[in-house]
Amino acid sequence: MELNFPTAEELTAALQAGEVTSVELTDEAIDRIERDDKAINAICVPDFDRARAAARDADQARARGEDRPLLGVPVTVKECYDIAGLPTTWGMPAYRDHLPAEDAVQVARLRAAGAVVLGKTNVPLGLQDLQSFNELYGTTNNPWDHERTAGGSSGGSAAALAAGFGALSIGTDLAGSLRTPAHFCGVYAHKPTVGLAATRGMVPPDAPAWPIELDLAVAGPMARTARDLSLLLDVMAGPDPLTYGLAYDVALPPARHQRLEDFRVLVLDEHPFLPTGSAVRAGVNRVADALADGGARVERHSPLLPDLAEAATLYTLLLFSGSVARFPVEEYEQLRIQAAGLSADDQSLDAARLRGMVFSHRDWLEVNNRRELHRHGWRRFFAEFDAVVCPITPTPAFPHDHDPDLLQRRIDIDGAEYPFFEQLVWAGLATMPGLPATAVPTGRSAEGLPVGVQLIGPMFEDRTPLRLAELLEQRIGGFQAPR
């Protein structure tokens, strides 16, 4: 039995049948990391001694008759999550010695489910890039092409999965940080409905680990199959036990349908702010064809769809509204002067970024009200449709670009250059209203790079896009190991 690329579901079955032990799985994963990760650099903080001890404990627990959801399964964790005794830095050198005393709530849930934590995966500086590199831990390379990025900010987790370093990983998503790395590395990820999975302990190292409800950011699962995503989401879902968890339990509704022919899906491959590259458009069309061939109702247009341009603008305003909270007063005042000089007719995303940076509370409340109108629009939309299929970014993984001025970076879409940040518009489509979105692989580009799409579903109906992902996996295939 090859011990690194089977699914978590298969590994659990093998463990239950006594075909393999957790110690064997863990040793095999560690051996693979030590052999292959020098070229990829996905695991930035190994925790192998404690992993081996946890594996021994898991085997002993199983021998006593225990059976937990992830008992004995090796996993990894994004660096931004607190793990007691390991550094949490978010890639910032000033915090290289920051050692949290407690596990993040999601790490605690992994351990309670019996998972064996191999270590932490790499991130960009401050989690603020679509790539994963920083001065402390270096650059994570895409397992398919080491000259290209694995994505960010959960790039280390996606690369680890693609390389066979553990069966599951947990990441976060504010600007596609789960979905983009999954798309770039050919694996699966799920951005849950906002608020579904507690985030305490997923916090910058200079901030206290309080049970704060985040506005846009979520914690979510990553895996090599859609069924494994559901398995891990069941472990992660639920409010913080220090707040809403005192009163509420999670009871997600079942998927709307079990058969592909019962799904009603809107397919999108065009955005008003930038084009979709040919490789990604082909991936979207592969999914659309598979849906239609399977009997699903597939539409390309609907008057019920909320306005994509306004959605991108609202997302940009909200995303950047908190980005300058700790700027020196002098720098903030310069931004205010620049924003005041914008023409009222300037509705570009560059203008939205600048306006968002200097929002007043009154401004934020107005934009939040417009967001609620979009949420209401999505509720009407999902009365007629079950999911949206659309890009995650307009291109497959791009070559490493470490220009520190992100505003000067450009993304190449079929030979034409566009502002780097504008590729976030597709990620923001689900993030702004807080909808669940599942990233699924669709095959490879002409260059041999993975291509993924996202399946956006109704709020708190996370099982619907996850089930659709399973059905698509059966028709078009799923994860393939890098060659």
Automatic annotation (TrEMBL):
Keywords assigned: Transferase
Sequence ranges assigned to domain Amidase in this UniProt record: 24-464
A Pfam family hit: Amidase
Highest taxon listed in the record's lineage: Bacteria
GO molecular function, one term: transferase activity
InterPro entries assigned: Amidase_CS, Amidase_dom, AS_sf, FAAH2
Cited Gene3D superfamilies: Amidase signature (AS) domain
Cellular component annotations (GO), alphabetically ordered: endomembrane system
SUPFAM superfamilies: Amidase signature (AS) enzymes (SSF75304)
Designated name of the protein: Amidase
Species in which this protein is naturally found: Amycolatopsis azurea DSM 43854
